[in-house]
Design goal:
Length: 207
C-alpha cells in the first residue's frame, strides 16, 4: 500500500487541525498572514525560510520577492515546488553551515525550533543570524512567557487528568520568553515578542 507524501500529510494536518487537542495551530493562517504583511512592509528583496516545509509561510510572497526555502525533507520540498514554482527550495539541514552565502534581508523560521534541545536551538539561531543583514530574524514558535506560567499550565493539565497532553509538551522544548530575551540581548541584539494566541509567539530579532 502506497503511503502519502509527508508534505501532503503535513498540509492536510494543518488544514484540518487533526489530532491538535492542544490547539497548537489554531491561529496558523492568521499568524502567517501577519508575518507576510510585516515582511512586505519592510521593502524586503530576499528572504530565507529555515525549515520551510512545503512553503506555507513565505511561498505566497514568491510572486513579489526572492524567496529561498531550506529544508532537509525532500518530500516536503516536492510538494512546495508544485505549490510555489517561483520559490527556490534548497535541500539542506538547518544545522549545517548555511549554503546561502550572500546576506539577505530577513531570515524566518516557523514551528521548527521547539522540537530541538537548547544547544541545537542556539546553533540554528546562530546560522540564521549569520546570513541576515542587520541580524534581522523572525521566529514563530511555541513559548511560555516564564517558568511560573509553565508551572501553572502543568498544574492545570494534571488537575484536568490530561497528563498525556503535558507529557507531549514536555517531550518538546518550548521556548521560555524570558530566557530567549536574555540570550539574544547578551549577543548585543534587540528582541521583541508578540503573543498571538495559545502557545504561539512571534519573536523578532534585529540590531
Amino acid at each position: 500500500m502506497k503511503t502519502l507524501n509527508k508534505g501532503i500529510l503535513y498540509d492536510k494536518m494543518i488544514q484540518e487541525k487533526s489530532d491538535d487537542e492542544l490547539g497548537l495551530f489554531d491561529k496558523y493562517q492568521e499568524t502567517f498572514v501577519k508575518i507576510r504583511e510585516k515582511i512586505l512592509s519592510c521593502e524586503v528583496k530576499t528572504i530565507v525560510d529555515f525549515g520551510c516545509g512545503t512553503g506555507n509561510l513565505c511561498g505566497p510572497l514568491s510572486e513579489k520577492i526572492n524567496v529561498i526555502g531550506i529544508d532537509k525533507n525532500i518530500e516536503m520540498i516536492e510538494v512546495g515546488k508544485r505549490k510555489y514554482p517561483n520559490m527556490r527550495f534548497v535541500e539542506s539541514s538547518i544545522f549545517d553551515e548555511p549554503i546561502i552565502k550572500q546576506k539577505v534581508d530577513i531570515v524566518v523560521s516557523s514551528y521548527v525550533l521547539h522540537g530541538l534541545n537548547e544547544k541545537k536551538q542556539q546553533q540554528v539561531l546562530s546560522n540564521m543570524l549569520s546570513i541576515s543583514d542587520n541580524s534581522r530574524v523572525i521566529l514563530i514558535d511555541f513559548m511560555f512567557e516564564n517558568m511560573h506560567i509553565k508551572k501553572e499550565h502543568k498544574e492545570r493539565f494534571l488537575r484536568n487528568d490530561r497528563k498525556d497532553l503535558w507529557e507531549f509538551i514536555e517531550s518538546k522544548n518550548f521556548f521560555i520568553v524570558e530566557d530567549l530575551r536574555k540570550y539574544i540581548e547578551q549577543m548585543g541584539l534587540m528582541i521583541s515578542f508578540e503573543h498571538v494566541g495559545n502557545f504561539t509567539w512571534i519573536a523578532e530579532i534585529k540590531k
